[in-house]
Amino acid sequence: MASDNQPKLPAANEFTPGQLGGPEVVFDLLQMVVDLKGDRAGIAEQVRQEWFLDSAKERKDPAEQEAQQLKRAHNVLTGMRQYGLLEDSKDPLVLTPLGEEILDHKGKPQEGLRIFASFLLRKRNGLELAEVARSVLARDGAVTKKTVDAELRNRGFAVSTNSSYSGKLRQWLEAANVMDDNWKIDEKLLEDLAGVSPSDLDAWRTLTDEQRATLEVLRIRAEGDLTPLPSSQLLDLLDQRGVEFDKSQVRKKIYDPLKKSGWIDHEVGSSGRGGKGGLITPTQKALDLDAEFLGGLKLGDLPADLQKQLDTPTEEIIEGLESKDTGKKGIALELLALRLASDVGLLPVELRLRGVQTGGAEVDLVAEGAHLHFSRWLFQCKNQVSRVGLSVLAKELGMATLLKAQVVVIVTTSSFAASVRDFARQASESSAIQIILLDESSLNAYKAKGPRALRNELHGYARQALTLKRSQLAEVPKE
């Protein structure tokens, strides 16, 4: 479900290297703002004269032609504002500190473009775009704008149909050699410009809120005092920041995980300074981390432990359902629900019941689509040996009514009782809800043949629903 809270890529509009004849045009535009003292109308006219005199030729009226050209010129200025080069003021136009810094490097254009790319990576979701491109390449072996946009939607980004935002942002990152036109990433350069490595991102995203808050407190305190901090004082500082945590579980939930992953040193003595809670010291890894930047990353509302595994191949996900480790089994079940939704063109909205919290036994996912019409889907995935009984379907039908969903998908690693299939047909025939039942054979086909097998089976259910629901028309009173 699209909302104002969903992360977005910046809208470049006409402000792109491809549109304006190369990346170094950014210096000309910035200089134009300075030379014309921010006069919006004058700048727009000069942009029109420089780049858009040959546009809108299909318009016969010269006044209409000029108006269209000016509109495109103003779109360039809007794009510059979206990309952080102009302040919010509309007239006069004013360069931001970033714009001024880039213009200062006019004589060294590649350095200026790298400053620009660094900003886009850190402040305009460029790093997220790179991560999505990397994940798509790992999963599919090739990257296209279409697959990038689909993956952005899957991760909770607001991406409109036929959006050009991802391709235009890629162009500016390409200008600094961070990416090429095939979305291939220069990992070393990206790390240098972003100030963070992919491994740092993965490590940070797996931390809980209270673990992140602990590191933030330790880093702030370390600016003035690098001596070990007694646990009791650290917990007081967390309390002052309003961090919610279970004091009886501090060692298990905060200290031990942070120590194991190399973020802190935790020294526990039988007596003396620090008491039984011990002494806490941030490691150099924690001190070097750009935590403020990492905390601002927005990859949608999906849990952090799923974010870094979204590129797992479908075959590996399904095989993970058989893991003896309940945690891995739970993650696999959640990834399966997300992959199913993604492969039929839906946007995951909410994990209602997490697989990792149920020992990998079941997971609920709400997903939505806007194709020829809006639809809300409920996915219930069950990892079990026994057949799925009627009570499961009854529960999901109740949830569908409550959540106003149109489609219920129940997925199982086993099979369905005959009564479930019978009732599913009756429910499809007598209500507005469509029911899809995917069993072990469905998953085996999906594993072997990929999304095409899944879509073919769903198409079969759609044809069946068409036949079943046709009788509903006979129940409509005739005038």
Please give the count of helices.
23
Percentage of residues in DSSP E strands: 5-15%
| Assembly type | single chain
What's the domain count? 3
Q: Which strand order do you get reading across the main beta sheet?
A: 4-5-6-7-8
The description of the largest β-sheet is: 5 strands, mixed
Structural class computed from helices and strand pairing: alpha/beta
Low-confidence stretches are: 271-275
The end-to-end distance, rounded to whole angstroms, is 39 Å
Total E-strand runs: 8
Mean pLDDT across every amino acid position: 86
Rounded Rg: 27 Å
What percent of the residues sit in helical stretches (DSSP H or I)? 40-55%
Q: What characteristic shape results from the CA principal axes?
A: flat
Reconstruct the topology from this structure.
Blueprint: H1 17-20, H2 25-35, H3 40-51, H4 62-82, H5 97-104, H6 109-123, H7 126-140, H8 145-154, H9 165-175, H10 187-194, H11 198-205, H12 209-222, E1 229-230, H13 231-240, H14 250-260, E2 264-267, E3 279-282, H15 284-288, H16 291-295, H17 304-307, H18 314-320, H19 326-343, E4 347-353, E5 362-370, E6 374-382, H20 390-403, E7 407-412, H21 418-430, E8 434-438, H22 440-449, H23 451-470
Parallel strand pairs: 6-7, 7-8
Antiparallel strand pairs: 1-3, 2-3, 4-5, 5-6
